[in-house]
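Project outcomes to date are best conveyed with an example. Our students and postdoctoral researchers have been running inverse folding experiments weekly, and each run begins with a structure described purely in tokens. The record below, which covers 303 residues, was selected by the lab manager from last quarter's runs and is presented without edits.
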């Protein structure tokens, strides 16, 4: 007995000890359950990262912009007012850039709505001025709007942040939802590991009793289960990551074909792929911890 007790640690970590419990990538349904959960987890995480990137884009670009429309059927007077406003706005503090949108550009914007014939006709269109504020200087908009109204009372100042606020709120809510889904899937994966560990413990109870009589400790026995579950979790996590990557690339290609700047802003930045690649490793560590705690606690209750 002493011989087995002293050498039990080396014996359990040897190849013979690892064969006590069957292990491998296809040892039951758990690897495939983990793969499905990791697939959903990666998709949810990718959606959250992409939405966060889009939200930052709205905050840094669209939220710092305003458009001024000058509606006047008299073209010479409209052009004179527009040029005066461009000069005045450029001198205001907090304004990063200001430009008048050309008539050709306005015609292209109207073409999908009015058709080629109406867009190329003599139909009067408002003069439009695009204003971009410096970073952190969006509070200058009310002062600029007041100066614009003083020069051209008929002018209309459109704050991009005002009509994009509901969209920003929706993006924020979806981002939080994605984070919650990632946490729920991680919790579901941990519970799956707990159930698998308990089932394996019941299946190999007779073997575990023999190992205890040979002097094996609870931690050494838990290590065997931990190794097997870690292998299954890593395999399932990599399969889930691979499948989710194909889906993300396919969806990204579809979004790119839409050609919309607003929809195209929902993109996955480069650093996000590094974060997604870490999910299978994090899932494996979580599975190992859940398996070890489950086995040790269960063995202590049975002694």
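After processing, the design step wrote out the following sequence:
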């Amino acid at each position: 007995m002493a011989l087995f007790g002293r050498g039990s640690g080396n014996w359990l970590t040897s190849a013979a000890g690892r064969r006590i419990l069957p292990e491998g990538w296809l040892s039951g349904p758990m690897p495939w359950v983990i793969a499905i959960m990791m697939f959903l987890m990666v998709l949810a995480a990718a959606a959250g990262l992409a939405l966060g990137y889009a939200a930052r884009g709205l905050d840094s670009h669209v939220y710092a912009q305003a458009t001024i429309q000058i509606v006047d059927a008299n073209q010479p007077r409209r052009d004179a007012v527009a040029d005066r406003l461009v000069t005045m706005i450029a001198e205001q503090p907090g304004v990063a850039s200001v430009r008048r949108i050309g008539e050709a550009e306005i015609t292209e914007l109207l073409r999908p709505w009015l058709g080629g014939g109406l867009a190329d006709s003599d139909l009067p269109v408002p003069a439009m001025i695009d204003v971009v504020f410096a970073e952190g200087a969006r509070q200058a908009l009310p002062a600029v709007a007041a100066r614009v109204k003083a020069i051209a009372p008929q002018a209309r100042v459109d704050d991009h942040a005002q009509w994009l606020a509901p969209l920003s709120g929706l993006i924020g809510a979806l981002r939080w939802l994605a984070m919650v889904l990632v946490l729920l899937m991680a919790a579901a994966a941990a519970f799956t590991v707990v159930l698998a560990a308990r089932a394996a413990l019941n299946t190999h109870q007779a073997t575990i009793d023999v190992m205890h009589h040979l002097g094996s400790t609870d931690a050494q026995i838990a290590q065997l289960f931990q190794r097997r579950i870690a292998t299954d979790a890593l395999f399932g996590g990599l399969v889930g990551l691979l499948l989710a990557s194909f889906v993300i690339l396919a969806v990204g290609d579809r979004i790119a074909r839409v050609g919309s700047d607003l929809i195209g802003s929902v993109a996955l930045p480069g650093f996000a792929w590094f974060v997604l690649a870490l999910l299978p490793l994090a899932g494996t560590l979580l599975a190992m911890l859940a398996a070890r705690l489950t086995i040790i606690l269960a063995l202590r209750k049975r002694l």
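The first strand starts at residue 65 and ends at 70. Residues 1-17 have pLDDT under 50 and may be disordered. The training component of this project remains on track.
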